[in-house]
Amino acid sequence: MKITFVSNYINHHQIPLADVLYRETGGKYRFIQTQPMEEDRVAQGWADDFASLPYLMIYDENPQECKDLIENSDIVMFGGCEDESFIEKRLQSGKIVLRYMERLYREGQWKAISPRGLMKKYHDHTRYSKAPVYLLCAGGYVADDFEIIKAYRNKRFKWGYFTAFEELSADEITSYKKGDTIRMLWAGRFLQLKHSMDVLQALLLLKQKGISFEMQFVGGGECEEEMRQFIKLHEMEDSVRITGFLKPHQVREEMKKAHIYLFTSDYREGWGAVVNEAMNAGCAVVASHAVGAAPFLIRHEENGLIYKSGDVTQLASCMERLCKDALLRERLGANAYETIASEWNPNEAALRLLRLCRKLMRGEQSFEKTGPLSEAPVIKQRKMYDYLTGKK
């Protein structure tokens, strides 16, 4: 079985899954990169020497071979490209395509009223509803977005990003997190959509209650100066530090040491692969309900805590609970690790994907019972918080 994945560029979050697919297909997997990596991603340390990857192809370096692969592979996955021309001929041929998609309307579903936008969505998606084109939903809000345009009904699968899995024993996780001081971590770009300032405001509430903690922010960006001023103004320098960007493997080492990981982005965060990594490290994760990964990865009160996006008081309450309750931290962290170890890891995802591909090639289709490639439910954005916290 020959599988080709077409996307904007390869990065460290995609390589683990690609490695397994290349291995399990006997070298018949290819990743076609259609554009260079953005400069801000390079600044974060995402760039690496990928030239040695045996499955990587650069479209501009060999366009004809890439076109042939896209047209003739048994399965073509397509994601992360704004230019539909790369797969238009494939779609017209009636051959199998798996669309690997984040949200259509991360800036707001009100944009669906645009006649021009609806025409484009019909051209790119809705008209293929009866064709062998299937949707891999990289986030919990994707299915609802595509329900608006009536595309891929009964063909929407839970999917996401599958970061490198590191096997850790319970004793190893405990040894990394030893010590009396509660360590919290946040990592990413300091952008408005990621709401790093919400964390600082919540930390101030904890400080006013006399709760002891250490907080580390890894990253940088447009909100950094505002954050530093806030830390100084409220005399939090002894407990809060900003360390700048670190290499991906360094961030994961910091996650191992952290008891609590905070993920505060809003609806504009399509997935958020740091959640996978923090759960793998056995962190007790506190996640905004609005991020794409939360509906698929976090089970509230079982393997993490969900708070309502933008609600600083609720965020602080979750943080306070975890700071005060060691048993809760350990239980959530252990269950988080198990979620990644049992289902949401690149090896399991690749095996499930190959199983699905074989079925599709036989003209069959079925969903897994849970986890990757189970059916992605349509949950209205306005109802998601209640759905995730059991208030439905």
User: What ranges have pLDDT less than 50 throughout 5 or more consecutive residues?
Assistant: none
Which word captures the global form? Answer: globular
H/E series: EHEHEHEHEHEHEHEHEHEHEHEHEHHHH
Share of residues in helices: 25-40%
Q: In whole angstroms, how far apart are the ends?
A: 43 Å
Please state the structural category: alpha/beta
The order of strands across the largest sheet is: 3-2-1-4-5-6-7
Rg over CA atoms, rounded to whole Å, is: 21 Å
Q: Which range does the strand content fall in? A: 15-25%
Mean pLDDT: 94
Largest sheet: 7 strands, parallel
Question: How many separate helices?
Answer: 16
- Count of beta strands: 13
Structure notes:
With 392 residues, the protein is of the alpha/beta class. The chain is 39% helix and 15% strand. It has 16 helices and 13 strands. Strand 1, helix 1 (15-24) and strand 2 (29-33) form a beta-alpha-beta unit. Helix 8 (196-208) crosses helix 13 (312-324) and helix 11 packs across helix 14. The longest helix is centred in the last third of the chain and has 17 residues, at 326-342.
